[in-house]
């Protein structure tokens, strides 16, 4: 999908992100890279009026992201992740990794660089509050096999419902192509954050068949 996006559209999207006064005025002063986003999120969540403002700002930011991540963060492309319902801390951490180049995706890195810190916090407030569209399994037999793998290899961290927690990603209902890609990245990671993740030792021992089955199960989790 990303490769198929015409250069002009990508440029236009970036321009929209950089130029549009999506940014509410007061936040420009906070647009420095060294703002502690987690601290800012906590500060905002403790102030309902500010939280509401940044939620609205986040919804405006999402108008740019909709081209790939779908309406309300429910992606229509199996290779592009849903952002809906994702845990706030996990989203913030991904933004930090894209911004510091520890997570590589040319387009996302450009997007993130053009967002100020309140746009990032607003985006997180908006997406984490959206509901994931449930897609029942189209391959129930495979999903049943995946359930066994899930219970043995994933449940201890991601939880019975795949919702994760403050530190751990929500995976329930995530897009299948994206899940496959991420699991394979963890399995083969040689350096960087994925190689150091607590999840990597589990992934190292998984076969392609295990991955295929667990993806069929996880993508259909409500
Ligand atoms: C041109 C398509 C495109 C657009 C537009 C786009 N993204 Fe993405 N985004 C992607 C792709 C593809 C990935 C997966 C990257 C990878 O494979 O690591 C991604 C990943 C992410 C992730 C990590 C999700 C996870 O589960 O780890 C976040 C967060 C994110 N994008 C936020 C945004 C925000 C916020 C915007 C709008 C300001 C946006 N994206 C716009 C294509 C896009
Ligand atoms: C020891 C704990 C642990 C286990 C076991 C584990 N995970 Fe994870 N997983 C994590 C953590 C923590 C993250 C967040 C990023 C990071 O720190 O690597 C994560 C991230 C992910 C992501 C990336 C989410 C995204 O949106 O980018 C996927 C997909 C995932 N896990 C799927 C699985 C599956 C499927 C299994 C079982 C086969 C599994 N995990 C087992 C802890 C675990």
TrEMBL record:
<feature type="domain" description="Cytochrome c">
    <location>
        <begin position="46"/>
        <end position="131"/>
    </location>
</feature>
<keyword id="KW-0574">Periplasm</keyword>
<dbReference type="Pfam" id="PF00034">
    <property type="entry name" value="Cytochrom_C"/>
</dbReference>
<keyword id="KW-0408">Iron</keyword>
<feature type="signal peptide">
    <location>
        <begin position="1"/>
        <end position="23"/>
    </location>
</feature>
<dbReference type="InterPro" id="IPR050597">
    <property type="entry name" value="Cytochrome_c_Oxidase_Subunit"/>
</dbReference>
<keyword id="KW-0732">Signal</keyword>
<feature type="domain" description="Cytochrome c">
    <location>
        <begin position="141"/>
        <end position="222"/>
    </location>
</feature>
<dbReference type="InterPro" id="IPR009056">
    <property type="entry name" value="Cyt_c-like_dom"/>
</dbReference>
<keyword id="KW-0813">Transport</keyword>
<keyword id="KW-0479">Metal-binding</keyword>
<keyword id="KW-0349">Heme</keyword>
<protein>
    <submittedName>
        <fullName>C-type cytochrome</fullName>
    </submittedName>
</protein>
<dbReference type="InterPro" id="IPR024167">
    <property type="entry name" value="Cytochrome_c4-like"/>
</dbReference>
<keyword id="KW-0249">Electron transport</keyword>
<dbReference type="InterPro" id="IPR036909">
    <property type="entry name" value="Cyt_c-like_dom_sf"/>
</dbReference>
